[in-house]
Amino acid sequence: MKTMKYLFMLTVMALMAACMEDEVYEGPSSIDSVASSIAAPTSTDNVTVTAVVSGLQAVRTATLSYSINGGGYNEVAMSGNGNTFTGVIPAQEDGTKVKYFVTVVNEAGFSTDSPEREYQVGDPPTDFTKLRLNELFGAADTDEGKFIELYNMGDFPIKLKGVSLKKDGKDTWMGIEGEVIPAHGCWAIIGAKGTTERGFSSGFSNKKSVLVELFDPDGKPLDVFQRGEEDTGWGNQSLDKVSGSWSRVPDGTGKWVVTDPTCGDLNATTGTEDETVVQ
User: Fold this and answer.
1) pLDDT, average across residues 32-44
2) Are 251 and 275 in contact (CB under 8 A)?
3) Nearest CA to 63 among 49, 45, 43?
């Protein structure tokens, strides 16, 4: 009888130990750290969020939740293996406040949220001195195909809002909100005589004198392209017909030469000199 009681007690103790063991293994995971890839993101930066997780249970799902300017939360499934998971918050407009947190659900079904973090998107002041006229093409068969290209020589994006062009001394184009040239990138203003929605309003000839001037939003001159002389008025002087583009070689800093057109892309590396262009 004593033997039976002893075996019964051993069985009960084993079951209790198994239950206690299950409770240890089936607890929630811990989110040890959450870090963003960029401390001070600009409006062109995607932000990668990395979470490091620990616990006795494997992670079933990891989710990155973020809100924009206090709005509702967007969810991004995080990828990874082991104990490290990443998700990406897409680039946001300048001045946007972003709040985010990470949620981890383990194989036992326990959910854990990280503390909420936040950052504010901030672009550096635009350096308009890095903006240049880069390529001009007036040889297209129709006005829709003519273009004037700008180039950003700087290491940061340039917002074109308020940037303006004059052709032959008259206003012909002005940048608007949302038009941005990336660092070391090009921006083509396509279409003469208002033939396209964001083209320039004047004509553009490949066989007459012309003056194109570029200004920052405060009206300060940034760059100029001049072919021929004003004479009795810009456009009144007839010159040899040019079939290619007038392009700076190299981009942004070089002399004006005639090349094949490369609308919205980096210029050719060589070209033919045009003695009628003022360097």
Assistant:
1) 93
2) no
3) 49
